[in-house]
Structure formats: C-alpha cells, structure tokens
User: Fold these one by one.
Assistant:
Number 1:
Amino acid sequence: MPYHRILVVGAGLAGLRAAIETSFEDVAVLSRIHPLRSHSVAAQGGINAALGNHPEGRDDNSEKHAFDTIKGGDYITDQDAVELLTTLGPKRIYELESWGCPFSRNGEGKIAQRQFGGAGFPRACFAADRSGRAVMDTLYEQSIKRGIRVYEEWLMLDLIVSGGRCSGVVAMDMVSGRVSAFGADAVIVATGGAGGVYARSTNSYINTGSAAAFCYRRGAVLKDMEFVQFHPTSLFPNNVLISEAVRAEGGQLLDREGARFMSRFAPVAMELAPRDIVARSIQAVIDQGHGFENAYVHLDVRHIGEEKITERLPAVREIAMQFAGVDPVEKPIPVQPAQHYTMGGLEVDSSGATTIPGLFAAGECACVSVHGANRLGGNSLLETIVFGQLAGAAALRYLQGLEGTGPHGKALEDAEAEVERHVEALLSRDDGERAAVIREEMKRVMSDKLGIFREKGTMQAGLEKIRELKERVKKAQVGAKGRRFNLELMSTLELPAMLELSEAIAAGALSRSESRGAHFRLDHPERDDVNWLKHTIARWTSSGVSLGCKPVVITQWQPEARRY
Amino acid sequence: MDSVQLSVFRFDPETDKEPRYCDYQVPVKEGTTLLEGLLWIVDNFDGSLSFRYSCREAICGACGLFVNGKYRLACKTQIRELGNGEVVVRPLPHLAVIKDLVVDLDRFWEKYRAIHPYLIADRSGGQGFYQSHRDRQSLEEMLNCILCGCCYSGCPTVQTNPRYPGPAALLKSYRFVADTRDKGGVERLRLVASEDGVWRCQTSLNCTETVASKP
C-alpha cells in the first residue's frame, strides 16, 4: 500500500499550496477529482490584501484589513489568527504574481483592486471575474513544475489514527472501486466546505464535507459549525453564484416596485454591506411579498454599460445568459440567497494543527478562525494560500520532531479491511431505502429549518429529523452493484458523514441563543457578548454530537456594535 | 412536467463485450440542465451510470460530452434547447472509455505537462512584476480555456499523430509566450516547434468549433 511522509487530501488552493510548501519532502496529494476541477475555481470576485494599489486605497494597511475582517465576523474571529492572515496576505499575493498569476492590472501596471463588501478600502485583487480559476491554474502549474504526485479520483473514506497520532487515510479508487490505505506521517486535510448538506447552495456538487466528517468521527474537533454563510446573490432558479463583484462594480438590488431596498437596511454601505446583512435583507423583502414569484429580487447593472460589463464581469454575463437566459446588459439578473460558505470546520490552531497529532487542516474545511460569524468576500481565497502554506510548514516541523516514522503496518491493514467490509456489506444488501431519498430529505431540512432566519422550534424539529435520517441511512442499500466508477456507491458512503456535519450545524445553532453574523435567530435577535462571545466546540460520540465551548482570542479590538 | 428521452452511451470495459445505448425518460422543466438530468438518472433510476462533474457552472471543465453530435459541457446545456426529439449522449469521441461517459484523459494531461505550463521567470518574490493593462488583457482569451478536453477530442491531427500536442496544450504554450513576464523564450518555442508540434496543425480548425467553454 502507498506510503508518503506527507499526504495532502484535497487538491484545491489550500491543498496545493500546502503541497508546494512541502514539495522537497516526500509528499503526495489525493483528490476525488482532477485538481483543476476543484471548487476553488468557482471563486469569482477576488482575493483580499492591503496592497494599496488603488488611488482610494493609499491609506490601507494590514491592520485595517484585520479590523474589517474582525468586525465583519461579528467579533467571534480569533484576532491573532486574523492578524496573521492580513499581515501575510501581501507576501502571498506577490508570490502568486511572480508565479504567473494573471491578475487584472490598473493604469500603473500594478495589480488592480476593487471594493468589496465590508471592506474599508478597495482591497480585492482580481483576475476579471474568474479570480479563483486564475489562482488555481497558477498553483496547479507550480505543482507540475515541482513534479508533485497526485492520486486523482481517489475518495477519502476514513482517517487512520494509531498510537495517539494520525498515520494515514483510507480511500477508494473511484475508477476501479478498490479500497486502499495510504500510510503517512502527517496528513493535511484541505477538502473544502459542506454546501452539499443544503438544498440551495452555490457550491460545486462535489462539496459534501465528508472528509472533514471522517476526521471528526476519529476524534478531531469541529468548531463554530452553526455559522453558515448564505450568499446574497445566487442566480434564480439554480443557484449558480453571481459574484459580489457585480455589486462592487455598481450593481443595484431592486424589489418588485423597483425600489433600491438596501437603503432601509444599510443606508451607508448599501449593496456593499457584508453578506449576512445583504442576504437577510433580500430574504426579508421576498418574505414580505416584495420579490418576484415569491422567490427572487433583481440585481441591476444595466447603468454601468456594456463595455465595463464585458471587461470586468464577462463570466457573470455568460452565466446569466446561459443559465437564466438573461443578458445583464439588457435586463436585471434574477437573484436569491443560497448557502455559500462553511465558516465553521475542523478546529485548528494558527499553524493548521488539529487536535490529533499529525493531522493538519487548511482552507474551508478548517476553522482557524478568521471568518468568525460571517466571512468577508475576498477573504476565502486569501485564507487558502496563507493557511495552506502555514499548514505545510507546520507539517514539516512536526516531521522533524517525530520519532519512529514509516508506515504503521497493522493499523493501516486493519483500517483498510474495516472500510472494505463496510463497502462489501453495502453492495451485498438487497433491501432498504436508496441513499438519494435520504440525502434529499437532509438537504430540504437544512435549507428549511437551518437557513437564514432561525428559531428554536423549527431548529429542534430539524435536529430531530437529522437524527432520524442518521438511523435510516444505516439501513440504506446501493442499487448499482458494480465497483467501477460507481457514483451511487460513493454518495452512499459519504451520506452518513454529511449527516454528522448536519447534526453538528443544527445542534450548534440550537444552543447558540443569540444572533451573530450569519446566525440569526428570530427568538434571540440581539448579539449577546456576555454569554456567547465564545466558540462552539463539537465532539463526536457514538450517541451523537457533544457540545462545548472555547474562548475567543481578542488582541486589540474590543467588541462594539456592528453598523454599516 | 414534460419529459425528454435521453439515450445514453453505456460501456463497462471490464464486463461488456460492446457498448450499448440505454434510454431514460427524464423530467424536464425550464432551465433543467443535461447534468441535472444525468444526476436525476443516478438518483432515481439507475445508480450504475458513470460520468464526471464538479462545479456545474461551466468553470471547472469536468463534464465535457458529445451530445447530438456536438461538443458540450453537460452543466451548461439546457435539455429543452436540444429540441423535442431524442437526445443522444456520448462520451468525448476518440478517447478510451473508462466507463460510460468517463474517458481517459491521461494523454491530454501528459501533453499539457510537456509544454512546461508554468511561468519561466528570472526572479521571484519582492513586489511582483509590472504589466500594462493592455498586455494583461491580451491574455484574456487564452485564460478562458478551462481544459475540458473537447478540442483535443475533436482534433483530427491528434487522432492521426499521437505526438501532436493538440489545441489546448498549444494554447497554453502561447498563453506564456504572449505573457510579457515570461522568459521562456526560445526554449519554450522549441518544445512545440518540431515536425510533430505546432507545424503539424492541418488548420481544420475543429478546435474553434468545439470550444465548449464559450456560449
């Protein structure tokens, strides 16, 4: 069975950046898809760093970036981690640039920057509105240059912990259906968010969160799972992302009467208030009957003109035309909020170390925490490259202090055999529900009961439903019996893990009796710093999630009222 | 709700002697994409159908297919727009089938790697390079390539000469040649200037027809 000193799981931006950092060691990357199909490519608007390249951004600096991030996250960010993020930001951006990243340019030939929601200055560097694709291409190119080995189309199905430390993973080769353990002295999980647990999500279909859940089941701790970002503007009806860049370039949100309703909710920042506020405003307008078809509002960019739309928002224009038959040059874009980002994740320190020795995590699957209760646009791409690099460096340091390296033979064989038995059992069962039925119920429950507006009774019902689904999935059967590229088998193997995350989200949301950032409770509409200025911690037990808490790190910014 | 019949290519090289087509009646409403239709089949009808997908918004390049004789991304193809008749869904032609609609793109990626698809520069770190707005914009068309493999599948020269890099790799090479920051120079050109390289292009220009990432 394969063995590498470092195994990175996930080949998006965080995973590849970690692999590049460790590329002089014996490192390999394992990914369920070809690296260039990773969800990182879907990021559109930009990547934040206080470069001060824009005339209006001359006074910007990393401290101001940190403050915006902390306020944007409604003060539940760990401020030391945020300062690390914003201080290292410019260095990582210039590194990307020197690796060939095709950033858009301003008139001086410097990296262009645009204004994003919740930001005090134009700070988001971008490559038209295909920023994620541009950065992803660049990091993949660098991984080719360094000859980094990638196991493509391998789906992680378990984490191996032996002798008190992480010693590898079990994964399935999607093509052959073969199960194999991968030995490793250090594992870096960078597998992205869990949008797949929601019915309405902008995430790629591959974003199930299952890898993080497998780590959780083996003892890694989850943090702040109740904080789920709903992006204000996803295309109606199929929830493809319509970038914040549209509002950054002057796009206006209009209700059915043609009123620019953000003036009622955020009179100063208007459409460029943080995402949680804009998403709630849109949903409120729809719920009060001022939307279209009780489902969406209009995002209007007609006034900025065809030339600017073509240059700055080409992908958005193409998406609107392809998926909704609307050319933004001529008509407003129909938009509605949809799940977009998982602020919570595997609890890590600012080097990326989880609670299990030898297991590191970076990117959306991790919670450092730099996004707190609400992530600012442009900070997720930054997080991937800053903390991907740090996690790689931390894994290297961990290896230096490690005694007795090499594959843990017996533990690996046992773990592989256990997963293989599970797969065999699934394939040989001939009765029971199909997992797809249970999965659709989970998605509906999460969207209906744990969406933008939350309340004790509905969340309680949601949690009970999730627990019912956890029982039902144990008896699910797989109709397709072959091993080769079996999509149904893979989604059935992932579903119990997705339900674990759903349970952690629901339980965390139910316990947090306050409103903060993206977590808004109709029955507790105010922030409660006395009781709730703390992280939620979720531990896996065989009888369900067990909740705890952890203090928030505050360095120099005391919590204050959050107005825009 | 209306329904449309999808006739889908099926082949498992491990167990099947030859390929066949399976017909599925798929519910369709305004906006239903081919990818949604294929996923509906897996969830509701036949879990053994295999295909690749990821972003479902035409940016990752995973779901290139050959539909009613045209190259398309499944995620941005609306079933209704394919007309009222039967819809025939095939894997990308001229490539080995791994299973059903999943094809082997190893050679495609080998050729991508062979052109040295990374910036060759004489320095790194510091404040990065300057590049004029105009020079950056001149790269835009090449940057829009999402490496879905459709052009490679449809190129007659690729099919007749196994050493020919194919359109995507050549485009990637030019993306760096045209980048004012790149110092690859002659070395970069040598990689594609051989008899089996760019000169082997027979200008049939199928690639410009098959570009699936364009509307």
Number 2:
Amino acid sequence: MIRLEKRPEPSRHWAYATPVLAVIATMIAGGAMFAALGNDPLVAIRTIFWDPLFNEQFAAFSRPQLLVKAGPLILIAIGLSLGFRAGIWNIGAEGQYIVGALSGAGVALAFYPLEAWFVFPLMVLGGALGGWAWAMIPGILRTQFNTNEILVSLLLVYVAEQLMASMALGLMRSPDGGGFPGSRNLGDYPAAYNDELIAGTGMHWGVVAAFIAVIFAYILLNRHIMGFNIRLTGQAPRAARFSGVKPKMLILFCLGVSGALAGLAGLFEVAGPAGQVTIDFNVGYGFTAIIVAFLGRLHPVGILLAGLLMALTYIGGELAQFMLGLPAAAIQAFQGMLLFFLLAGDVLTNYRIRVGRTEVA
Amino acid sequence: MDLASIDPVLLIAALMVAATPILLAAIGELVVEKAGVLNLGVEGMMITGAICGFAVAVETGNPALGFLGGAAGGAALSLIFGILTQFLLSNQVATGLALTLFGLGISALIGQSYIGVKPPSTTDLDLPILSDLPVIGPILFQHDAMVYVSIGLVIFVWYLLKSTRVGLVLRAVGENHDAAHALGYKVVRIRLAAIAFGGGCAGLGGAYLSLVRVPQWTEGMTAGAGWIALAIVVFASWKAGRVLLGAYLFGGITVLQLNLQAAGMEIPVEYLSMSPYLITILVLVIMSADKSRAALNAPASLGRAFHASS
Amino acid sequence: MKLTSLVAGAALALGLASMATAQDDPLKVGFVYVGPVGDYGWSYEHNEGRLAVEEAFGDRVETTFVESVPEGADAERVMTQMALSGHDLIFTTSFGYMDSTIAVAEKFPDVKFEHATGYKRSDNVSTYSARFYEGRAVIGHIAGKMTESNVVGYIASFPIPEVIRGINSAYLHAKKVNPDVEFRIVWVYTWFDPAKEADAAQALIDQGADILMQHTDSTAPMTIAEETGILAFGQASDMINFGPTSQLTSIIDNWAPYYVARTQAVMDGTWESTDTWDGIEPGMVAFAAMSDKIPADVRAEAEQMIEDIKSGAYHPFTGPINKQDGSVWLAEGEVADDGTLAGMNFYIEGLTGEIPN
C-alpha cells in the first residue's frame, strides 16, 4: 500500500525538482497528444518552449514579449500570494484588475487632452485605488459580517465585467470612434501612455512594478513583522492570535494589497499594451494569476519564474498555431496538463511517499 | 412599449428551460461543496459534458444515451480534479481553475469533427389532456424529459442530504473532516464520490445545452454558465430547494430581461445583468451576519485539504 | 542599419539567384481570428476564405492562422510574430484589431496588411468590409411580405453602426411592402452565446414574432425557429442544416473572392492600399438558396431587388427616409453617402424603442 507521510519541513530538494519533473511529464503527455493530432511531437515541443526564446527569426521580439505577458500575471500573483499564505482567499483579482483599469483610464480620459506630467502618476494612483476599493468590498464584508471572501470576490468579477461593458458602450466610449464601442486609445495620448521605457525591451512601468513587487514581497515575508504575521496566521491561526496578530487588520491588509496590485496591473495594461477600454478588455489575467501564484509555491521568486513560464506557453502556443497549424484548443489542453502536473508534483515537497504496510504508531 | 404581449405562462415555461443547465450543474456542485470540496472547474466539466453528450448522441442516434455520455464525460473530467486534490493534496482553487482551462481545450479538440452537425432531437412531453391544460399545461407538462430529471435530482439531493445516513456522513465530512475521519468514515472516498457526482451533474447540464437548449456543438458554447452555477450554490446557502429557486431566479432574470426588451421597454441591460450577482452577495451577507444560521449552512471544511495524519 | 546593409549585401551577392528563389517560395498568407474557427459563424467564414485561397493557389501559397486571439496586446504580438516569420500578407479579421494592425504595419512596411471592418488605413494597410445591409434589405422585403402576425423578431448583438444599419435596412424594406409590420428588437450584448441567443429567440416567439432575423453568430435562433415551426433568416453561414423547414434564406459572409483577389495582387506586385466595401455584386454578400416557402412572386421581387442592387440601379437607402424623430434624413431620390452609413447611430422612422447606449 502506498501512503503519504507529512514531512516535518517542506523538502527544499523536491521544491526545486518537482517543477522540472512536471515540465518533463507535460512534454511527454503533451507530445503524445500532439502526435495523436498528427504533428511531430518534438517539433511541437520545441516550438512552444524553445522558439520564443531562441528562434533566430523572431526570438529578439518574443523574448521581451515574455515580460509584457508575464508582467501583469506576476504583479497580480504576488499580491494574491500574501493572502493565500495567510489563508485569505481573494479569487476575484480579475474584477479588481478590471476596476483598476476603468478607474485609471477614467482619470486619463477626464484629463484628455491635457499634456501634463502629473496625469500618469494620477492614473497609477487611480488604478491602485480602484482595485483596492473593489477588494475592500469582500474585505469589509468579511470583517464586519464574516461573509466568505472567496465567494464575494468571485461574484464581484461578474459585476465588474458588466460595469466594463457599460463603460465601453456608454460613458467612456470614444467620441471619435465612429460609434463603435471602446474608449479612446491612450496610445494616442502621450501624457497617459504607458510606453516601453527602453524601445524593444518590452519593459513598461507594469513590468517594472512587477519586479518591484517581487522584491518588496520577498523583503516583507522574510524581514518584516507583517510577513511573519502572515505566515504565522496561515500556519497556526490560533497561535497568531495569541501572539497579538489582529486577524481583521490582516484580512484588510492582504485583500487591500492584492486588490491594489491587481488594479495597478489593469491600469498598466489599459494604458500600455491594450491601449483602450473595450467590452472584452479582460482576458483572464486575474484567474491565471491564481494558478501562477500556486505554481510559484506562493514564493516571490517562484512566482516570478512561474509567470514567465506561463507567458512562455502562451507565446509558444501562438507560434505553434501558425507555424504548425496546431489548433488553439490543443494549446489550452497542453497548458491544462502542465498545471495539473505542477500542482500534483507539489505533494512530493510536503509529503514523503511510503510504500509498504501501514506503520504501527 | 407593449407589456401586455408578455405572456406570464410562456415566460415561466421559458425560464424553466433556460435555467435547466445551470440548475443541473448547481445541484451537483452543491453536493461537492457539502462534502467540503470547492471545485471551481464547473465550466470545464459542463463543456466537456456538452461535447461528450453531443458526440454520443450523434454516433448512436439516441439522445438518452447522449445524456449518459455527457454525465460520464463530466464525471471523468472531475476525477482528474478528485485525484489531484484528494490523493495528491493539491490546492482546490488552483486545480479547479486548471480544470476549466483543460476542459475548454479538450472539448474543442473532441468537437472538431462535430461542427455544423445537427444532433438527434429530444422530444417534449406530450401527455393527452394534461399537456393541453391551460396555464398548468405549458408550465408543468410540456417540457422535455431533462427538465423533470433536473427537478427530480433536486428532490433527490434534498432528501439525500436531509434524511439519509449517506447525507449525514457527507455533511459530517464537509463540516469537520478530521472528526469524520476519527469516527471511521472514509473521507477521501466519500469526497471522490461527491466530486464525481458533481462532475456528472455538470456534464448533464452541458449535454442539455448541446442536445436540447441550443442544440448544436460549438466551441466555448457554455459561455460562462458554469460560473453562474457556482454563484447559485452560494445564493442557495447550500440548500437544495433554494438551488432550484436560485436557478429559476437567475434564468428568470435573463428571460425576463429579454422579454422586456422584446416588448419594447427601455432597460439598462448591463445593470440588470449585474443584479443577480449583487442579490447573491446580499443574501450571503445577511446569511453570514446571523452567526447561528451561517454555522448550519456553509460547510466548515469548504476548500480545505484533508490528510489523514495531519 | 547593420541589418539593412547586410541584406543589401546579400542581395547583391546572390543577384538573380535570390530573385529566382523569391519566385519559387510560396507566398505566405496569415490570418488572425478573434474566435475559434469552430464557431460556425464569423471566424468560421473567414477560415473558409482562407481555405479558398489554398484551393485557388495550391503550392504557390502557404496559409497560416491563429484563432481566438484577444484584441489588444495579444493581437499585436501575434501579428508581429507573423510578420517576423516571413508572412507577406496578413488578414486581421476583427474590428478590435484596428489599432494593433496599424501599429504593427508601421514596423513592417514590406508586409501587406488587410484589416476587416475598420476605418484606419496606411500605405500597407487596406480595409475591407461587406455591405451586409444590402442583404438585409432583401430579407426585410421577404419578411414584410411573409409575416402573418406582422411581428418580426430581431436578435441584435451590440449597438454599433454595423448592427443598426442592418436593422434600419431590414425594417425599411419590410415596411415598404407591409405598413403594419412591427420590429421587436432584443439586444443580447454578445456576438456568440448560443444559450442566450436561444432564450432571446424564444422570448421573441413568445411575444408573437413569426419571423426571426439575427445579427449574432450562433445557429441557436435558427434551431429554436425550426422547433417552434416559425420562419427565420440565417446569418453568416448557410444554416439550412439547423432549419431545414424554417430557413427562408441566409445572408452569407463570402470572403473568398476578396481573399483570392488580394493574394493574387500581392503575387502580381499590384497590391495597393485600398478601402473596399463590397456588397452583393462582387459576391462578398451572398445568399443561401431561397426556400420553397417563399411565394413565387415574392421570390421574383427579391431576386429583382438583388439584380437591381447588383447593377447599381437601386440603393437600399434611397430617400425619402426620415429619422426616428420624424426629421428628414434623405430627401426624395437622395441616396445615403457611405460616411453616414459607416457611422450610423440612429433609427429610421417607424422603429420603436431607443438604441441603448
């Protein structure tokens, strides 16, 4: 009989090894799927994992694009991971991302066409505040009425989506857009445009913010009392309370930070790569970031790597579509497999596998 | 505006049909959550059920087999989630989301050769006399079989949870898995069964979409119905009867909104579409503010991983 | 700089040899779709156009596509990668790709871009769209003649000019032949949600509509019409499979002739940036076979109208036409200009309700 035995301490060794094993397992299972679809599995795997990084023709372009795609994922996932560590479940980052984008873009559109240095900083503030406020709804409901924050934050995603549709079709609709839905393109408004900081690198303020968030989270978790409280609450809630952690403050802090970061991600996206508020501006970063947070084992550096890996499969997946004619669905299924293997592998970090009869206690 | 052109009888009959897919998925998820498991992969299981049911119905020419196929497809997918979360102790939220991603992909792959195909049709109930009764006839006796199956499932789940030993054990596992384990219940097995049941129901809901409601196969055809099912379970405060109410309310608001438009009334569509979610949040707040009642409803172990030695 | 000189040097060195290989290399044509090719609607029809290009040119072309590409940053990246990987011609098939297409085209002056349904062009970006309102005029006429309840149900997606134009055109021509006709319009706020479209169809039928028109992509409304035994017009594709007795005809998006012609132009070196807004005449707007249920005289009238639109003898928006508030839009004999049509954001006289915003 096979059974699991909890390790006293998570294994460092396995924590590093399992992601690698998971990627290899995915390559095998995914390769089998690609072969079943009539493609050469080795070519498909190479196209997804290798070409975006090293293909002579376009890697120079797609490498920086990894940052563009990974930036919002990392930024959101970092915020979420703080709460997840403390057992506070914000799964509505998608909604906070949307509201952050709406409020940030709202600031820009209110100032349009004023060219002033303070427009962009105000937008950043607006985006963060928007996401923060949207996350405070589940936060306050949780602290005041003990309402489950998982469900409220999820429900608010749908509300945010409807709000965005209403904005794109109504209040924020571009007067020069020929009646089509969608706001002005902020790319045409220099004071508000979140352009690449150095041309050709993909680095825009959102990517910078993501890196800062990684460092900030690392320091917070390892060096700061708040980080200690977060970890303690997650591991031993009762002990945390005895040691003076105020659970309500912690809930508001974690939800607030994750909301603000998600809002920032939305703002940087709408002001930069996306350019405008449209009906379907959100493409699921908020949900994917949850997965990224877990893939990164809720560790800041892990999240950084997980975000980049996720971005790689997106970009490689697109390449596989137009270079090999693989359907988008195959890429989705492939990503699903990768996530399954990564999530499954986590068990080896925290548990030992014992084969044999049940031990006598 | 011509409100008189809205026939309340037809409206109720229409909302029952519109609500059936989300009702089926929601009643399944209710059982899963009652067992203390939060599976956010409902959308993925529904769409997998939609294509499996469609494929089986087309290949066999038999819609009834199609529904079985849909349920089997949903259940099979849910077992991936079950194995990962129950044996390998992965995080339920992340695994559920991954399940949706995988389900959307795999369903589209299976469905590639079924685009533009028309499935065998499912017949509506046609009882002599009863179906022709005014008012009651269209509401109660003119639907396809799955509408009755969905209501039957609600009654079954209600009875199961309330009055049977199986229900008692299921709830015990959802309330406090450590205590249930100490009492000798097989927590993991019970949860796996609940997860498979939830997957089967979601698959049925998906198959209802592809075989009756729409009927056709197209990629991504569930278009978010699985997420609504999740909201309904919460709205229902984990009670089977209220799941029925919630599903009909959600379905009803959609149908009513479309009918009001058809009658020429000006309505802010986006704000009306938000309202069910806002109402659900309100219900949630009222319910949880009353601590004694909250404790009775929400499964205390919801979303927490269980390991026997921990 | 370096790259340019390198390429120039290589070209010099290889001389005619490289010219010869350029001729032998298949032309690479890329397509970017907003939905899955399996939607049996908008993206499906664009993909049919792609297959027609393959059919027409065989080994002389290589076509590729990426499906379900979200508008915005993702679309821009996909287009850039296509351009980098040696595509000569790229079709971007959603309105929301407009700004991305312009931005990418600026970086790749040697690659030709074709953007569907937009209004921004540049030296290497053409736009193309179809005059679906011509088709809607024809089905409006048929609907006006054939409705018995005088209630026509219209399932609309988003309140944008394209959709409003279609409603106006269909209503205008239904009203001309049947002054009592009434249009019931339901906005579903989605291009593709089969269940919701089915619900909308049901709501319209429950309120007395005996003919359905849709400006959404799924076949759900057609199936509901078939089940309830009423009549309907298909959209985007021939939906006869889903409404064998219900479908009167269907307005088909037929991109194949345009795609073939533009590919040929690139091969011949005659490609220029153009603004194409084609209708029935060049075949961009096509019809599915007319149902036998359409009485012979109505069918003859419909076919006459098709001929007249083709020949240019008739424009569907010819005055006198008033706006909904009664003010004059087009005087007697006046023909609508393309600019107004392209940005149409008002109902014509007789339609009830307001355009949501």
